[in-house]
From TrEMBL:
One of its GO terms (cellular component) is cytoplasm. Residues 1-109 form the Thioredoxin domain. It comes from the Eukaryota. Belongs to the thioredoxin family. This is PITH domain-containing protein. GO terms for molecular function: protein-disulfide reductase activity. PROSITE patterns: PITH (PS51532), THIOREDOXIN_1 (PS00194), THIOREDOXIN_2 (PS51352).
Length: 325
C-alpha cells in the first residue's frame, strides 16, 4: 500500500508541512510524460523511506492545485521540492532519478541523526544550521560555489580560511562548543574584504544571507565589527583589486544597519533579482564596517535562489557584465 499523500487542498498541504519534519513533494500533471516515467521511482522511495511525522512523501497535481504550484514557483514538470521544518530545503526540476534519490537520502539521514541525538534542526554538530529562514519558493544554493577556486583578499591568517564561510554547522560563537577553532574570518590591515565566488552552475540569485558575530565587549576598540557597506559584482572571471572595486559601478550596493541583523547574527539581503539572473560568479566587496574598528568579521555566507545546469568544473563562461560596464 502506497504511503504517499495526495494533496487535495492548500490547508491540507500546510498542515502536512507543520506535522512532518521532512516532506518530499512531487509536483506533476496527468498529461506530463516524464512525470509518469519517474512516478514509480518516487513511489519506491516513498515506500522505503517514509516515517510517520518524520519523512512524508506527497503528490500535488498542478492542474488541480494551481495556487500551491504558483506559491512555490513551479515552472517545469516534474518538479520535486524537499521541505524541512516547513521550509524549502532543495528542489529538482525534471525527471532526474539519481539527483532525487541523492537529495532524499542525504536529508533523511540528517533527520535520523537529529532524532537519535535528540538535537534540533538548527543546532547540533553535523546538522544544517540556518541563521535565517529561506525566502518562500527558493532554496539554499551555497553548495554550487566552486570552493577550490574561491579567493578572499585582506584576510587575517590567524582566523579561519575562506572555506569556513560555507560550513553548514552552527557558528562556534552561538554554540556551547569549547573548540578553539576559529570558524570565522576577519579582515587584516583595514576593514575591507574582497571575496570571489565562482559557481559550478549558472545561478539565479535571490538573497544573500550573511552571519557576523563579533564580540560584544564595548571596551575593546580593537574588536572586529559587522559589515556595513557591501558592493556586489557579477560574472567576473577573477577577483577584483580594491582600487578597481572602489571606482567600478556595482551590480548592487547594500547599506546595512543594526536592524538588519537578527538574533542569530544574520542579515538577509534581498537582491534586485532581475540583475542576478544567469550568473556564473559573484564578487562580494565589504567596503566598511558599522563602527570605527579597523576589522570586519564574517562567520557564514549563504546564497539563496535557483540553480541551472551544472557546467564543466574550472571554466567560467563570460555571458556579459551588466550594461554600461
Amino acid at each position: 500500500m502506497s504511503k504517499t499523500v495526495n494533496i487535495t487542498s492548500a490547508s491540507q498541504f500546510d498542515g502536512l508541512l507543520k506535522s512532518s519534519k521532512l516532506v518530499v513533494v512531487d509536483f506533476y500533471a496527468d498529461w506530463c510524460g516524464p512525470c509518469k516515467q519517474i512516478a514509480p521511482i518516487f513511489e519506491k522511495l516513498s515506500g522505503a523511506i517514509s516515517r510517520e511525522n518524520v519523512v512524508t512523501f506527497a503528490k500535488v497535481n498542478t492542474e488541480n492545485q494551481k495556487d500551491i504550484a504558483q506559491a512555490y514557483n513551479v515552472q517545469g514538470l516534474p518538479t520535486f521540492i524537499v521541505f524541512r521544518d516547513g521550509k524549502v530545503a532543495d528542489r529538482v526540476t525534471g525527471a532526474n532519478p539519481l539527483k532525487l534519490q541523492a537529495i532524499v537520502k542525504k536529508l533523511s539521514e540528517q533527520v535520523s541523526s537529529l532524532q537519535n541525538s535528540g538535537g534540533e534542526s538548527s543546532g547540533g554538530d553535523g546538522a544544517v544550521w540556518r541563521g535565517a529562514a529561506l525566502p518562500r519558493g527558493y532554496t539554499d544554493i551555497t553548495q554550487h560555489i566552486e570552493v577550490n577556486r574561491t579567493e578572499l583578499l585582506n584576510v587575517d591568517n590567524q582566523t579561519g580560511g575562506v572555506r569556513v564561510l560555507f560550513e553548514s554547522s552552527k557558528p562556534s560563537a552561538l554554540s556551547k562548543s569549547t573548540t578553539t577553532k576559529k570558524d570565522w574570518v576577519e579582515s587584516d590591515t583595514d576593514e575591507q574584504l574582497m571575496l570571489f565566488l565562482p559557481f559550478q552552475a549558472m545561478l539565479k540569485l535571490h538573497t544573500i544571507q550573511l552571519t557576523s558575530l563579533p564580540p560584544t565587549d564595548d571596551d575593546d576598540d580593537e574588536a572586529p565589527t559587522r559589515p556595513r557597506t557591501i558592493k556586489l559584482f557579477i560574472n567576473k572571471t577573477h577577483n577584483l583589486d580594491f582600487d578597481e572595486a572602489e571606482d567600478m559601478a556595482a551590480t548592487q550596493q547594500i547599506e546595512l544597519s543594526g536592524k538588519d541583523w537578527n538574533a542569530e547574527g544574520t542579515a538577509s539581503i534581498p537582491l534586485r533579482y532581475v540583475k542576478f539572473q544567469n550568473i556564473n560568479s559573484l564578487v562580494l566587496f565589504v567596503v566598511d564596517g558599522e563602527s570605527d574598528s579597523e576589522k570586519t568579521r564574517l562567520d557564514r555566507i549563504r546564497l539563496i535562489g535557483e540553480a541551472g545546469e551544472k557546467r564543466e568544473m574550472g571554466k567560467l563562461e563570460k555571458i556579459g557584465d551588466e550594461a554600461g560596464e
